[in-house]
Amino acid sequence: xxxxxxxxxxxxxxxxxxxxxxxxxxxxxxxxxxxxxxxxxxxxxxxxxxxxxxxxxxxxxxxxxxxxxxxxxxxxxxxxxxxxxxxxxxxxxxxxxxxxxxxxxxxxxxxxxxxxxxxxxxxxxxxxxxxxxxxxxxxxxxxxxxxxxxxxxxxxxxxxxxxxxxxxxxxxxxxxxxxxxxxxxxxxxxxxxxxxxxxxxxxxxxxxxxxxxxxxxxxxxxxxxxxxxxxxxxxxxxxxxxxxxxxxxxxxxxxxxxxxxxxxxx
Length: 266
Ligand SMILES: O=c1ccn([C@@H]2O[C@H](COP(=O)(O)O)[C@@H](O)[C@H]2O)c(=O)[nH]1
Description:
The protein has 266 residues and is an alpha/beta fold. Helices cover 41% and strands 16% of the residues. The chain has a single domain, classed as Alpha-Beta Barrel (TIM Barrel). It has helices at 3-13, 38-50, 62-65, 69-81, 98-111, 125-128, 163-172, 189-198, 216-223, 236-239, 247-265; strands spanning 17-20, 56-60, 87-94, 116-119, 138-144, 180-184, 203-206, 230-234. An 8-stranded parallel β-barrel has the order 1-2-3-4-5-6-7-8, surrounded by 4 helices. The protein is globular and about 55 Å long. The chain binds ligand LLZGTKA7.
C-alpha cells in the first residue's frame, strides 16, 4: 500500500486505529480451543468485528512464533484473511547484516505479503536498507519505544541531542516518508512534538495506548501532521475487551470508542 492510499483510508474511515493481534493462546476464550486453529478462529472473529473501524492490523510475530509451525500457519491464515484495503504490519523487530536483512524483508513482504515490518536500527544503514527496496512496502523503524527501558539507551544524551533523535534523523536520510515510518511510544507524548519537527512528513506507528497507559488525546494533539501521520495501535485493550462468547462484540465496542475519539482529532 502506498502513502496516498493510506492517507485516503484514514480520511474515509475517520480513523487512524491500528489493532494489534497479539493473540495469546492462553488468553483467548476457552470455547475456541476446540477449533482446529484457535488463534486464527479468534483473529477471524476480531477482524470481522473491527475491520470497518481501523486502518491497520499489527501482528506481533512473537505470539505466533512461540507456537512453532502451527503458529506460523495461524499467522499466514490471519494475514491472508485481512481485507486487502487494510494496512498490515508484521511487528517482528528484525535487522541484521545486509544479506540476512534482505531475507527478513522477503519473508514478511513476499512470503507472507505484509505491507510493512518493524525494524530495529541498532546495526546501522546496511541492516535497514534491504527493507527499503520494495515498491509500496514499508520499514517501520524503532525510534523511541514505549517501554521504561527506552531510558537505558534511547534517551542517552549525545553532544547536542539524545540518541533517539540521532537515530530518527539518520534513519530518515536512508529512506523517505513513502517507505519508512517510525515507532514512537504513546507513553512518550511529552517529546513527540520535538520528534515531529525532525520528521514532519513521516508516519508514526504509536503503540502504548490502552494497557500501557498512553493517552490518545496527547499523542494525537502533539504528533499529528497534515495527513494525520499516525497509526495508533491498541492490542490488549481491544482484543481482550471481553473473554466470553461475546468477545468479538466487546472488541467492536472498544474499537468503536477509539475510532470515535480519533474522528474528533482529525
Ligand atoms: O515501543 C513499542 C514497540 C512495540 N510495542 C508492541 O505494541 C503492542 C502493544 O500492545 P498493548 O497490548 O496495546 O500494550 C505489543 O505488540 C508490543 O510488543 C510496544 O508496545 N511498544
